[in-house]
Amino acid sequence: MTAGTFTSASLREAQRIADEVLFPAALAVDADGAVPASHLNLLAEKGFYSLAAPPPLGTLDLGDFSDARTVVELIAGGCLTTAFVWVQHHSAVMATANTGNDHLRENYLAALAAGKRRAGLAIGAAVRPGPPVLRAKAVDGGYVFSGEAPWVTGWGSVDTLYTAARDDEDMLVFALIDAVEGATLSVEPLQMVAVQSSRTVTVRFDNHFVPAERVSGLVPHAAWLEREPEMLRFNGSLALGVAGRAISMLSDGAMVSELDSVRRQLGNAAPQDVAAARAACSELAMRAATALAVHDGSRAVLMDGHAQRLVREATFLLVFGSRPSIRAALLQELAKPRH
Fold first, then answer.
1. Bridge partners of residue 176, in order along the sequence
2. In a domain, 238, yes or no
3. CB 247 within 8 A of CB 224
4. How far apart are CA 297 and CA 152, in angstroms?
5. Of 95, 127, 144, which one is at a domain's C-terminal end?
6. What are the angstrom distances between the C-alpha of 176 and each of 173, 217, 241, 321, 335?
7. CA distance 121 to 91
8. Residue spans of alpha helices (H) in the chain
9. Angle 274-296/306-319 helices, nearest 10 degrees?
10. Short-list 202, 203, 209, CA closest to 145
11. CA neighbor of 111 nearest in space, from 38, 172, 160, 175
12. 173 and 187 part of one domain
């Protein structure tokens, strides 16, 4: 995709930021240990923290949900590490916009939509199928959360964690929690093959009190699983961004057509087909990145080249946000005979 193909000013601006700011700095960000505040500040200044905000707080010139996915794809194609920190924010915006908790909406929504308050995401430990590793227990005045959230991104760049824990009635308790270490909340940094500068950590909760005024809502776990495919669809745009950047550096017309096809597959997939579409996105990102490495030859093993970064990022996206259905579809995709 090129900026000239967009009628939306916001999509053109996302493309400009990706090409002129994020991509030229992506190797430095990959090595530096943290996403520059200037990157996140620029996204906030241009309204991109309001991607999921309702009018009038949502300031972007976008049409339907596919435009939101395009923004994610563009930012990821500029710098996956920056995109990975920024993209976690939007679940908190949506939850705060739709909560029945007036206190939370009145005190948090505007600041979240403007990027003045920035959120990370700590819901996977409770929402995935199987027993939860982060549990909630009702107490006077709220809940206590105990357990851990293994994959929380942006520590040090976010001030709020949109967190879910599951209670003994299989109810998910969603809340906004301060991203501050203390006696009942601690973090352990993770060492990852890619996006290390996203500062992803495991957060541990030790009877951490969450006041009722910070709870955005309660959702039966079974109901959450029914609507989860839409979130998984949204995450697929990260892989499309990595694939698109590698393909643009290859100047491979055949792979451009394949990227267009996979993008349509992701956007049009019925809920039961999202896993296969996600798998197709991740497989194409891996194949495009490795093709770029082969194209670049021996210099692709040097750390100052984009090919090795994109290969590592594509590897990361093979397993990020995965589910058993996505894993099975991806293994099937990788095993397909190719001619």
1. 162
2. yes
3. no
4. 35
5. 95
6. 10, 10, 29, 21, 42
7. 7
8. 9-17, 23-32, 37-45, 65-78, 80-87, 90-98, 102-114, 124-127, 221-250, 253-268, 274-296, 306-319, 324-334
9. 160
10. 209
11. 160
12. yes
Inside any domain, residue 122: yes
Using N-to-C axis directions, what is the helix angle for 65-78 and 9-17, rounded to 10°?
20
pLDDT, residue 338, reads 67
Are 200 and 88 in contact, with CB atoms under 8 Å apart? no
Q: Please, what are the averages of pLDDT over each run of 10 residues along the chain (339 residues)? A: 72 97 97 96 97 93 91 98 97 96 96 97 90 96 97 96 96 97 97 96 98 97 85 90 97 91 95 92 96 94 94 95 86 80
Domain coverage including residue 266: 223-334
Q: Do 328 and 235 sit in the same domain of this protein?
A: yes
pTM of the model: 0.94
pLDDT at 3: 42
How many CA atoms, within 13 angstroms, populate the side-chain half-sphere of residue 279? 19
Q: At which of 166, 188, 220 does a domain end?
A: 220
Distance CA 42, CA 25 (A): 14
Is residue 216 within 8 Å of 176, Cβ to Cβ? Answer: yes
Closest CA to 237 of 41, 96, 76: 76
> pLDDT value at position 336?
80
Q: By the 8 A CB rule, do 325 and 275 touch? A: yes
For position 253, what pLDDT does the model report? 84
Residue 65 has a pLDDT of 87
